[in-house]
Every structure is written in structure tokens, then in C-alpha cells.
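Support case: user asked for a sample of complex input and structure output to validate their parser. Sending the pair below.
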Amino acid sequence: MDLDERKLKILHAIICDYLETAEPVGSRTISKKYNLGVSSATIRNDMSDLEELGFLMQPYTSAGRIPSDKGYRLYVEQLMEYPMIDMQQLELVQEIIVEKIDKMESMLQDISKLLSMITNYPTLISSPQIHKTKLKHMQLIPLDEYSMILITVMDGNIVRNHILNSTMPIKSETLIKLSTMLNQRLQGLTLEEINLPLIQNLKQQMGIHGILLNDVLDAIANSIESVDEQDVYMSGAIHILDFPEFHDVFKAKNLFHALEEKDILITILSQNSSKQKDNNIQITIGQENIAKEMKDCSVVTTSYKMGGQKVGTIGILGPTRMDYARVVSTLSHLVKYMDHILRNFMDG
Amino acid sequence: MDLDERKLKILHAIICDYLETAEPVGSRTISKKYNLGVSSATIRNDMSDLEELGFLMQPYTSAGRIPSDKGYRLYVEQLMEYPMIDMQQLELVQEIIVEKIDKMESMLQDISKLLSMITNYPTLISSPQIHKTKLKHMQLIPLDEYSMILITVMDGNIVRNHILNSTMPIKSETLIKLSTMLNQRLQGLTLEEINLPLIQNLKQQMGIHGILLNDVLDAIANSIESVDEQDVYMSGAIHILDFPEFHDVFKAKNLFHALEEKDILITILSQNSSKQKDNNIQITIGQENIAKEMKDCSVVTTSYKMGGQKVGTIGILGPTRMDYARVVSTLSHLVKYMDHILRNFMDG
DNA sequence: GTTAGCACTCTCAGTGATAGAGTGCTAACA
DNA sequence: TGTTAGCACTCTATCACTGAGAGTGCTAAC
């Protein structure tokens, strides 16, 4: 018993129908709606085979069939055809990026909102991991005698600020000198390269000044670490309630809860499914998900770039019955487009 | 027909029971569970009167009664008794504030999360309106020849940064001078006071420099306006699904949708209900809400202070059947506590 | 290998029938 | 005059039952 051409066609038809209707698909439906040139009885036999091979499931005796995770896997790898998508909506990304170029968080939030609006699925975006980004500028601004703000500007104009406290009073001229010195020593280094030993080294070289500024330098070391903390932005959780598979309030609540937990979101975005599609897009289906709350869901993920380097991940989440083809199309177009605009802005 | 002592007691009992069970309350339930010393028949007569007066409603003939908006209004104003609340959970606020003192947004998000966790209701917090806050420090940091970052520090150490662009190349020494000048002129003024005419005036006084820095000064004027943009943080929308009154997926979706719209959230927080309780807490019940999506909900709001001035609003949202007493207690304790901690931190 | 036909299975929607909760009214009582 | 017991009435929710419909698997014929 093998997967001949016709069985594949039948599987494809069943999946297409199920994606639309969310109802188990029967042999007669296939023979009527999809012109396969064979009778429903033949389709029935093939469906029985496909079930035995694990590509289909039957919710109860004498119901139609629904695709299994394995069925979807075959579908996304061999069968699905990418539809044309409406680029007009996607082009709004340009506006978002231009408008929010100096507010990375807000930009990512808006992109994830747009994406969930276009796809009607919940969308996740992780903030740029910038430990491989170079330091562009550092500046200390005095607040009062004992506290100051450390401004950190990274390549790609990612700006962070931290409030630092010192146990000793510090003159503003000292801060200016320290700023200059920090820039001389650290500019052009990546966050990975700016570590504790380097800061300790700096302290020693400064001699008496280093001791006076002990607190400040420690605080700076701390701040640099926290610059790289990862955030995840999620939008469109509400769409969960649109899927018939989550009309059970208990199920919906479970998933909602998961989507409010940052750790789970990070797990979802960072897991690697066995195979990766050529266009840099990964699909994780149902039980393949690590997070237990996601076992009935699928995720389509891809990475986005800044300065030529992959810095973050975008994921679109849905029931296993999600419209993979359209989501993959939308996502890959979006990322190409984003890459294009961001490159113009950041490096130019 | 007036509201004598017994009628009030019966209303109180009905509301208490309904808050617990979410089921229409019958006369026998009241006479059995609450010891009013009269028979169910008497209660029945009084309930009929209370319905005629508009404090109760009957979902259908020969069902029990449920409170009307007017009934709840009477309850929150005269009848409810504040319970003791668990201060231990509230004390986590201190940790949040200490940890996030230099990241206002993150702090407010965490507080709203905590509050929704404690109360099991969705929670809103508006970001500080800082147009009445004084400017503490301004600094321009060069990024490259044509662009720079404007750092704005307000009283209470609220920090904002904006990326500005100029059409002409600008030397970094010029920026330092400009920073000094801006500080001399603007420090200590509130955002309200720093308006376009003032900036124009500045340009003129600077003569040839003013023309060169035309772009920059315009950009600064723009930025100052946008510093005051209001944000609202919302947490715990998921709790909606816990309320039996939103077990209807369509209703739940409607409310969810509303909670994702910033404009609606601002409306919810800024509306004024007719009466304000003495402890600075406002309650808006059902139809009293302006936003149409909220007509089946109630909101308990209060304001929080920074530097002795009211700068933002916190709101807790629930079905009209919400546990007003506990929510009011929790909220008023939280705000007192926050005020205490924030005062120590910001002004000290 | 394919197909028509048929018996069988299971769900779903509709239909009474029934129990139960609650009311309103009346008449009796303190 | 206010309170109460009793009773008829109303409305809902639940359960069992039924028939229609969708779909399957098997068999026998092509």
C-alpha cells in the first residue's frame, strides 16, 4: 500500500475542504466538489488506506475524515500551492517603519498588529537580540548629585536608557569626562564583547578615578547586560475565539493564558521544527510543538534582519487547521519587504 | 411605597447572593439563607415593590430577580461593606516599583498585571499625563552628521528619547552648545509652557545660529508635543471568559475587541460618573458607561499621583455583577500604598 | 482495479413530557 | 394593617425518544 498520485490528490482535496469548512469530509463531498474522475466508492477505499497510513483520522465511526498532524506535515511539504496575496495591505508596513523608526518597541507592536489583522491569526514578534550589534554611542546625563541616566545607542539606532545611582556625589564634569572615556574605549564593540572583565580593567586603568566611580561602572556593567533582555510582542489573541476548534471556552482560556506568558511565547518562537522550508520559513504542527498548551495549534515562523543579521523572529499562530499556504505567502513577502525597508533606513 | 429598612435588607441580600451565584434569586432562597425574620411571602411582596421601583428585574415571568443598574448604584452608595483584604499580595507593588523605577512603562504594565491577578478582573492603567510636570534636563546626542537623539528628562525621572533629523550637517560642538542653551531657557518649565511661540522666539534670539538650527528646533518642538502622548496598559482580558455573562462567545469577542482599542480604553478611564466616593474612587455601572461596548460592564476607577499631582488613572473592569466591595478596597489600598512608595522614591 | 448497491452506524435537530423553581393572588390570621 | 400559608399558574431546563441525514464498509458485479 503506497501513496500513489490519486491518494495524494484525495488527501489534498480533503485538507483543502477541511481548511475551509472545519467539518469532517466525506467521500461523496470529494467526488462531487473535486473532479477526480473516480467514484465515491473508490475514494472511500483510498481514504481508508490514508487513515491506515496515519494521514487521516475519523472523529467517530461513520463520520467523514479529518487530517492528522502527519497529514498536514505532508501537505505543507509537498502539496500546498501558494496563493497570490494582496500586497496593498502589506505595504502599510512601510508607513509603520518610517513613522516608528525611532521607537523599536512600538514599531514591532504595530507590525504584529498589522500582521494579525491581515491574516486573522494571533501574531508574535520577538524584539531584536542585539548582543551582536555594535555600540554606537554612550552618554551619561546627570540627574542630581547621586544619580544619572545612562543612554546607550546601538547600531540601527536602538536607544536604551537606564537610571544609575552612586553612593558618592558626582560632579557633572566628571560625568562628561567619563562619557568621553567610555566612548573611546567601548565604541564599535558588540555587547558580547563588553563584559565584566573589560569593565574591571577600565576601573584599574583609571586609578583613583576608577575607585570614585566604582558604583557607576558597576551599574554600567549591569545596564549593558539588561539592554539585551528579550521581549515578545503579541497581537490578535482575540482571533482564537473565531476558530470553531476553540469555541469550547475552557480550551480557549488555556491558550489565552499561554499567550500571556512571556516564557511560553519565547519557547514558541525559538523552537526548531525538524524541517525548514527553503524560503527561511519554519512550520511547526500540533504535537510537534514543545509547549503543551500548543499541542492543538500550529505556528509558522521566520526571522527578520537588521543590518544584514538575523535579529528576531516573527510567528503566526493558529489551529492545526490553519491556512498554511496563505500564511506562509504573507509572512515571506512581509519579511522580504521589511528587510528591504530596514536596510535602506538603518545602513543608509 | 418607600424604601424601608426591610426592603433595603432584602435588596442587599439579593445583590450579595447574585454576586456569588450569578443566578436569579428567589424569595425562598432569601428567607432561608439570610435571616430576616419574615416569611418568603412577605419577601415576595417586597421584591415586587423593589421591581416596581426599578431596583430589581425579572429575566422572565416566574423566575427569580436580578439587580438592575439602579439597584447596583444604590448598593455601592449605601449598602456595601468593605471586606478585609490580603495586604501581602499588594505589597508586591513595592518590589515592582523599586525594580522598574527607571522604566515607567514596564512598571505600569507590571502593576496592572498584579492588580488583575489579585482581583481576577481586567485592569487598565493610563500612563502619566506629564504636561504639568516640569522639565528637568534636555540633551542632544549626535548620531551622525544629519541626525541626533533628543533626550528629555522630566520631574519624577520620566525619560523620553526621540530621533531628530536635520537637512543640514551639524557639528557635535554645536549640539553641545544648543543643549546648554535649551537647558538654560527651558529647564523648570512645564510642557504646557513650552509651546511653539516660545521656540520661535528662541530661534530669533539665536540669529544666524537659529536659522542653521531651524530643522532641529522644529523637530524639538514636535518631540515635546509627542512626549505627552497618552498610553493605556491593559492586563487580564482573559478573565472575561470566567464570567458566566460572557460565556456567549459573541459577547466575549465584542468586549475583547473593545479592550484592544486604545481610544476606547481612554474613554473608559476618563469618563466621569455622576458621583464620586469620598475615597477618590469612582464607580460607573452598566448603562452609565459612555462606550457602547461597556453597557453590560462596570468600572471602578481611581487616580494615582506622582509628585503630589494626579497624573494617571487606574481602572478595574468587570460585569455589572462584579464584586464592587472587594475591588474598591483593593484599589484604594493599592493607590495609597503606591502614593507612599512613589513619594519616597521620586521626591526624596 | 473500479463501481453500484445496500445494510449499518453515529450524530444532530426536533419533540414531548416532566420536574422544579418561582411567582402572584387570595384568604386567613395577629 | 401588615404578615403568612396555601395554591394555581408560568416558565425553564432536562431527558428520553425519534427520524433524517451523512457517511462508512462490505459484497458482488463489471
